Amino acid sequence: MIFSELVAGARRRYRMLFRRGRTPGLRTAKTTLAAVLSFVLAEWIGTSDQPVLAPLTALLVVQLTMYETVAQGFERVASVLAGVLVAVGVARVAGLTWWSLGGVVAVSLVLGRLLRLGPHLLEVPISAMLVLAVGGGEDVAAGRVYETLIGAGVGVAVNAVIAAPLYVQPAGDALGELTDRMAEFLHGLAAELRAGWSRAAADRWLNAARALGAEVARADQHLARAEQSARLNPRGARAREAQPRLRIGLTGLEHCQVGLRNLCRALLDRVYFVPGEQESAAYGAEARAALADVLEAAASAIHDVASVTSPIPGPADAARAEVGAGLTELQRHRDRLSELLMVDPHDDQGAWQQHGALLAAVDRLRVEVEAAVRRPEEEWRPPRISDRQRQAVRRVIDAQTERRRTRRRSPDGPGSRDSPDSPDSPDSRDSPDSLDSPDGRDSP
Question: Which of 65, 183, 204, 390 could form a disulfide with 229 if both were Cys (CB 3.0 to 4.6 A apart)?
Fold first, then answer.
């Protein structure tokens, strides 16, 4: 048992280190090359005696996608240029003193916020202080600006010339890994049900179902990166063609993960409902075997979802037919399970409710698998940056407005934290675990 857990842990670490579709060392090679080239170019131009700012800028500019690289380059250049201008202006009035240093930092921070530099905000006062520390000479200031421009330009050029990144394949591989993990989970749960059932097993498999949420989040991050990599990329047509299938598949698999949690929660509720000495009799051997057949059919159908959502052009209709055949087999085993779990609600109302919850979870799982392979209805295009920024600003403004309204309310009024009407009230929050059961609790 301990050996098998060690092997499983080693496999998980290996998958995290070497994800499918990832070229090991590509970003490291590009970043190193950009730093070296920027240093050589700055040294050849003669910006300073030791032009280390150029490779430093290249290190910060080179990102995973072309859009991120260009954005980082613009923000980096703007922050350095703003800091240099502030330092040169102050140096003409005064040298480096405590009050001039404070004024430079304050003005630089205000200017950085007005320019909306985000993570590069602190680069404005840093550049200003470094230039002010050496006297604020125009040669030093110009050299710093030139080195920043060289580093940013070389970083963008290297990222564009060497394997301009389009992260569609890693996104498809992430969905493939997600289907593999879900299928592996269902096969393991089916094997456990055939061998027996207990409260400890129910707790363990519910936690394992929740842990699949991390894989869903990772796949969503890969897909978001693929969508972003389509911006400013001449090969973005491939992402526009593959994104609808990937997004539809990921949405369906995300709902499948919630369905698996509901299914495991139904199994947990049943085993805790019966007395402790009868927990093994919560489900009979024949019912457990029928449920295991349902789970194995669901595992086969979920595994085939990856063939439909794959970004590589292929026979999607044939893959959808395979998923449909798996769902037909799942429905057949589900009907047999329904017959085995049929009870009179007047004789055992608890069993009737819990068996119904289990069958409802199976039905929901089948529906979501079918939804994950439906045909896209429209082509996807990258959203305009201005619209996205406007939505982000609107969310921030709305959140700040709501916080001010909450603070203005009386502690004893309807806006208090203990009131159900309050935005911070526990009853008003949409906790993911509340999807498992009506009361949102994890254990009886």
Answer: 65
The one-character DSSP state at 155 is H
The two structure tokens encoding residue 256: 């499948």
Measure the CA–CA gap between 339 and 336, rounded to whole angstroms.
5
Spatial distance between the Cα atoms of 225 and 22, rounded to a whole number of angstroms = 13
Return left, alpha or beta for 25; rule: phi > 0 is left, psi -120 to 50 is alpha, else beta.
left
**For residues 66 and 165, what is the distance between their CA atoms, to the nearest angstrom?**
7
Q: Does the pTM of the predicted model rise above 0.90? A: no
User: Residues 166, 171, 173, CA angle at the centre, nearest 5°?
Assistant: 120
Our CA dihedral for 384, 390, 393, 399, rounded to 10 degrees, sits at -110
What are 28's two structure tokens? Answer: 């490291």
Which of 255, 242, 184, 204 has the alpha carbon at shortest distance from 435?
255
Could you tell me if 128 and 83 are in contact, meaning their C-beta atoms sit under 8 angstroms apart? Answer: yes
Q: What is the dihedral of CA 58, 64, 65, 67, to 10 degrees?
A: -50
DSSP conformation letters of 184-246: HHHHHHHHHHHH---HHHHHHHHHHHHHHHHHHHHHHHHHHHHHHHTTT-TTHHHHHHHHHHH
| Angle in degrees, 0-180, between the axes of helices 236-273 and 285-309, rounded to the nearest 10 | 170
pLDDT score of 433 = 41
Mean pLDDT score of the chain, rounded to an integer?
76
CB neighbourhood size of 403 (10 A): 12
Residue that has been written with the tokens 């449920």 in this structure: 291
pLDDT beyond 70 at 392: no
Q: Average pLDDT, stretch 429-433?
A: 38
DSSP secondary structure of 309-322: H-SS---HHHHHHH
Residue 175 has pLDDT above 60, yes or no: yes
Which residues fall within 8 angstroms of residue 327, CB to CB, at 6 or more apart? 297, 301, 366, 369, 370
- DSSP reduced 3-state for 93: coil
